[in-house]
Write a structure and sequence with these properties.
Protein name: Thymidine kinase
Organism: Prunus dulcis
Strand content: 15-25%
Family: Belongs to the thymidine kinase family.
CATH class of the domain at 26-162: Alpha Beta
Pathway: Pyrimidine metabolism; Purine metabolism
Radius of gyration: 23 Å
Strand order of the largest sheet: 5-2-6-7-1-8
Bound molecules: adenosine-5'-diphosphate, ligand LXEULUCI
Structural class: alpha/beta
Shape: elongated
Catalytic activity: thymidine + ATP = dTMP + ADP + H(+)
Number of helices: 7
């Protein structure tokens, strides 16, 4: 019978040299468009873990100052206290090494804004044995991958894609439409600027927004080049 001989020593000596996690960590990803209930699902999960006697902490991006600075808040007003941080790898130091050791579960909201999401999830789940629950947008208003949320899918135990209701027809909404001409990727806002839409209304909405941007651009061009014409138009 053919036998397999590993060239990698699998002795207890080699096992001892690899740092082993305290317990087995987990990564769970909740994603989808705006208003899909991502933060609601994250809060429900974190509260339930806390009620089951596990030590929990919540982190959100300090870029999100919409409803509160030091709380995660859903669009319908449910709240949970959190650490608002510019990056994730500074969390351990901010939280305190000893307190971090005792943590079981870490929730992360607005995950699309954290550049170090992948490295943090690897460290916290693989090495430190934490359960990480991540909520964030998978795509931006142009339906391009947003931040590192999609990069952590290969690290995840579970992935949940939530949907909202299309604000124009009530069907399932998979996408977020930006209602203004602003083109930068990061634009912190709520229902004043964004709405959840189905595929058909996303496509129609993009055509409308593109036309609106062209009109605004041509008006800008006219007022820069021919100020006297633009004043009449
Ligand atoms: N267009 C909307 N404007 C404001 N609130 C909305 C809108 N659509 C849904 N909601 C509310 O937002 C809640 C979901 O909020 P939240 O969990 O913060 O969503 P997400 O984190 O996915 O953006 C829904 O249960 C609903 O009550
Ligand atoms: C689509 C899109 C969204 N944003 C911002 C807008 C909000 O501040 C957050 C998303 O919050 P939610 O909890 O998921 O409702 O992200 C952005 O900056 N750029 C975009 O393209």
């Amino acid at each position: 019978m053919a036998s397999f001989k590993s060239s990698i020593p699998l002795t207890s000596d080699s096992a001892a040299s690899v740092p082993s996690p305290h317990t087995s960590g987990e990564v769970h990803v909740i994603m989808g468009p705006m208003f899909a209930g991502k933060t609601t699902a994250l809060l429900r999960r974190i509260k339930s873990e806390g009620n089951n006697g596990r030590n929990v902490a919540m982190i959100k991006s300090s870029k999100d100052t919409r409803y509160a600075i030091d709380s995660v808040v859903t669009h319908d007003g449910a709240k949970f206290p959190c650490w608002a941080l510019p990056d994730l790898l500074s969390f351990r130091q901010n939280f305190g090494g000893e307190a971090y050791e005792k943590l079981d579960v870490i929730g992360i909201d607005e995950a699309q804004f954290f550049e170090d999401l992948y490295d943090f999830c690897c460290m916290a789940a693989d090495h430190d044995g934490k359960t990480i629950i991540v909520a964030g947008l998978d795509g931006d208003y142009l339906r391009r991958s947003f931040g590192s949320v999609l990069e952590i899918i290969p690290l995840a135990d579970t992935v949940t894609k939530l949907t909202a209701r299309c604000e124009l027809c009530g069907k399932r909404a998979f996408f977020t439409l930006r209602k203004t001409e602003e083109t930068r990727t990061e634009l912190i806002a709520g229902a004043d600027v964004y709405m959840p839409v189905c595929r058909q209304h996303y496509v129609n909405g993009q055509v409308l927004m593109k036309a609106a941007r062209t009109v605004v651009e041509s008006h800008k061009f006219k007022s820069d080049t021919f100020p006297e014409v633009a004043a009449v138009v």
